[in-house]
Amino acid sequence: MGTSFLLHMRVVPDHRVVGMVTYPLDEILLATLTGVLCGADDWDGIETAGRGLIEWLRQFLPFRCGVPSAQTFRKVFRLLPPDALERGFISWVASLQEVVRGVVAVDGKTLRGSKHASDGTGALHLLSAYACGAGLVIGQRAVDGKSNEITAIPELLDMLALKGAIISIDAMGAQKEIAAKIAGQEADYVLALKGNQGTLHQDVRAFFVDPALAKNCASFAATDAGHGRIEERICRACGDIDWLKECHPGWTALTSIAAVTSKRINKKTGEISTETRFYISSLPPNPAALLAVTRAHWGIENNLHWQLDVSFNEDRCRTRKDFSPLNFAIIRHAALNILKKNEAKLSINRKRLNAAINPAFRTQLLTEC
User: Fold this and answer.
1) Cα–Cα 20 to 30 A to 248, which of 36, 77, 151, 313?
2) pTM attached to this predicted model
3) 142 strand-pairing partners
C-alpha cells in the first residue's frame, strides 16, 4: 500500500552515510507524519506513537528494524535539507489540487517555542501561503526575521503555480517588486497599506477621507453577528486612479484602490469601535469582491495560525536546533492539510484522536491524500 505523500518526498536526499543507515528515510518520514496525525507534538510522542502502531505502519513500508528512538528522529530532522522537503511538499500539495483558485493569503508566524534565548531571539519565523477556499497550506518559506519577509515573499511566490489566483498580503508585502512578481505569474493582488511605502498610504487615505473625492466610489456593506458583537463592514472602491499612478509610478497592473471600514458593536456593553484599512489592487473596483478578498485573508490567522497553536501546540514545541524547527513545521502543515482534506464532520482535535484509536480512519487519511 502506498501514499502520495511518500511518493513526492522521494526528492529529499538522505544526508546519512550509505550502508550505515538502520532506519530508511521514507520510514522516518512516514512514522513522523503518522505520529503528528495521531496527536504527537514532539519527538518523544512520535516515538511512542510509532512503536504502538508498528504493525499498522508495516502495511506501507517494511520497518524491519522497527521505529527509531526520539533521539534518532531529532538527529535526522536537524540535518534534513529543508529546501528539498519544501519542494516535495509543494509537489504533493499540487497533486491534491492541480489549480489554485480564489484567494491565497500570504502571512508570517513566529514559532515561539523554537527560540534560543529567554528574550525570544533565534525563533523561527515562517512565511506561509494558504489557499483560503481549499483550506490548504500550499507552501512555506523560512525567514530570518519579520523585517525580511520582503525578500522571502518573492522566493515563496516563485515556488508556486498561481495563475488565476488572488494573492492577499498585509502591508509588509506592499512592494512594487512583489506586485510585479504576482502580475508576472498571471495572478492578481490585494495589498494592504500602511506607512511603509512613502506617502502611498497617506494619499489613498486622503482620497477616501475627502467626501468630494470619494463621493462617486462604488460601495458595498455587509453585517455579521457572533462572539457577542455585531460587525458592520463597508467597502468603498475606486478605479479612477490615474492621479495615484502619476504620483506613485511603477506599480505593475495597479487597477483600483479600496477602503474597508469595520464597525464593531459590543452587544453587552454597547461599546463601539471603528477601524478603516486601505488597499491597492490589480482587481477591478468591485467593492463586494474586494471585501470578500480582505475577509478571506483573515483565514490564514483563524484557520492556520490559530489551528497550529491550539490543535498542534506549535508555540510550545521546543524543537529548535539546526533545520529541525522548519522541517517539523513542514510535517505539521502536511498533517493539517490531510486532516482538512478529509470530509468527516469533526474538529481537527477529534480527527487526530480518531486517527490514534481507529486504524480504518488512519488508513483513510493516508491513502486519500
Assistant:
1) 151
2) 0.90
3) 126
